[in-house]
């Protein structure tokens, strides 16, 4: 059955099941509760960002298939907030409730090699890559792609984990030992002018909408700041939106999907990665768009019409990582004192370096003004108040 087969809408009052319990699930649950839905979440942890705002928090391992089946029996539809949900888990849930996006979308996108192969075979522009399963294959691949290049594990990678930049062929042995894997992907290193993403959403009736393109800057492989609209030419933005639409259709995806792109020095686009769920770069849609990405996910999986993606004002987002807590609790009052700045915290109990604890969104007359504002707000969080 195609995932776009028509189902009856799931109306407010029904219960939505979320596999995973991090900040994405939390912001989804907040959107769902605003519309009058109930939310159940399942993960191996307790007092989680999602569990704190859900109606019911179930603690179970993702491979406890009896617990998964029981969870699915008590909800109208199952979604997930991270793409590394095991295929067997999605299949077990599917026995009792629709799972959206479907397990086959997870299967493709949770493995870099499968994802890149799918994209290139479907004719989408993707960073040049070669599959690598041994040191010898890595050396051959390096000869083909040249240096610099990036070696990435094929599965279970995010935020730069399991990646190694190779600057010369002599680094091959160290790189192969460092990624600790049997299966990897070697990618050409792209000398990009900027990174952008498009958050798109596809309804069960096949309707696709996309948000204006978002521009992203990373630090140590983790998203640092985003702004919208991206400061790129209009035709590049249009092309990015069209590619995103095409990917949603080719994957037969129902729900939100984010496509991350490199914009090359000559204005070309290459897909770096797909995320079949609301995305960190789309957090600014909460405060700046008619309908946020989390509400769109809810609408899509419940067979409700999709909302407007109109950007009401240029916006920027800055992630708040655990590092900000190094000298104690940040000065929340100083960021809250700034007009047009909104604070979002995820309720995580322990601040660790690199851990996403929250984010700030700022609105401005232009993306540059919003970016400047959000960075000033983040700096204010760790600046002692003048006495
Ligand atoms: P990933 O986890 O693959 O999305 O990588 C995280 C970040 O590392 C990207 O957003 C880029 O900033 C950088 N990166 C990853 N792959 C490449 C590449 N092939 N060329 C240049 N930069 C890359």
What's a concise summary of this model?
The protein is α+β, with helices and mostly antiparallel strands and 387 residues long. Helix content is 30%, strand content 26%.
In words, what does this structure look like?
The strands form three sheets. Strands 9, 10, 11, 12, 13, 14, 15, 16 and 17 form a nine-stranded antiparallel beta sheet that branches. Strands 3-2-1-4 form a four-stranded parallel beta sheet, with helices on both faces. It contains twelve helices and 17 strands. The chain has three domains: 15-109, Rossmann fold (3-Layer(aba) Sandwich), CATH 3.40.50; 128-188, ATP-grasp fold, A domain (Dna Ligase, domain 1); 192-381, ATP-grasp fold, B domain (D-amino Acid Aminotransferase, Chain A, domain 1, 2-Layer Sandwich), CATH 3.30.470. The protein is of the alpha+beta class. Adenosine monophosphate binds at residues 127, 150, 157, 159-160, 187, 189-190, 195, 218, 221, 272-273.
Features:
single chain; 387 residues; Rossmann fold; Dna Ligase, domain 1; D-amino Acid Aminotransferase, Chain A, domain 1; 9-stranded antiparallel sheet; 4-stranded parallel sheet; 12 helices; 17 strands; 30% helix; globular; disordered N terminus; binds adenosine monophosphate
């Amino acid at each position: 059955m195609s995932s776009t087969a028509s189902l009856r809408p799931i109306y407010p009052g029904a219960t939505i099941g979320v596999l995973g319990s991090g900040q994405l699930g939390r912001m989804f649950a907040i959107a769902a509760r605003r519309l009058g839905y109930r939310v159940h979440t399942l993960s191996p942890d307790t007092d989680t960002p999602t569990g704190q705002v859900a109606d019911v928090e179930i603690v179970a391992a993702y491979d406890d298939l009896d617990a998964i089946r029981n969870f699915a029996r008590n909800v109208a539809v199952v979604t997930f907030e991270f793409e590394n949900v095991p295929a067997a888990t999605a299949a077990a849930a599917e026995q009792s409730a629709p799972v959206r996006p479907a397990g086959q979308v997870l299967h493709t996108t949770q493995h870099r090699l499968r994802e890149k192969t799918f994209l290139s075979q479907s004719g989408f522009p993707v960073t040049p890559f070669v599959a690598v399963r041994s040191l010898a294959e890595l050396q051959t691949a390096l000869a083909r792609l040249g240096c610099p290049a990036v070696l990435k594990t094929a599965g279970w990678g995010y935020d730069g984990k399991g990646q190694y930049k190779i600057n010369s062929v002599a680094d091959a042995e160290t790189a192969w030992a460092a990624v600790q894997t049997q299966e990897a992907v070697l990618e050409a290193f792209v000398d990009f002018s900027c990174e952008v993403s498009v958050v798109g959403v596809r309804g069960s009736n096949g309707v696709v909408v996309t948000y204006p393109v978002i521009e992203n800057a990373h630090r140590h492989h983790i998203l640092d700041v985003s702004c919208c609209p991206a400061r790129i030419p209009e035709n590049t933005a249009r092309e990015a939106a069209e590619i995103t639409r095409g990917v949603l259709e080719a994957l037969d995806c129902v729900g939100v999907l984010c496509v991350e792109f490199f914009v090359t020095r000559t204005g070309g686009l290459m897909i770096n990665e797909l995320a079949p769920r609301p995305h960190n770069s789309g957090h600014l849609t909460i405060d700046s768009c008619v309908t946020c990405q989390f509400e769109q996910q809810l609408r899509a999986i419940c067979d409700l019409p999709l909302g407007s993606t109109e950007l009401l004002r240029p916006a920027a987002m800055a992630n708040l990582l655990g590092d900000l807590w190094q000298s104690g609790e940040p000065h929340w009052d100083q960021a809250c004192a700034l007009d047009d700045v909104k604070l979002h915290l995820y309720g995580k109990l322990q601040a660790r370096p690199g851990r996403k604890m929250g984010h700030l969104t700022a609105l401005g007359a232009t993306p540059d003004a919003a970016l400047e504002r959000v960075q000033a707000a983040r700096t204010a969080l760790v600046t002692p108040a003048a006495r």
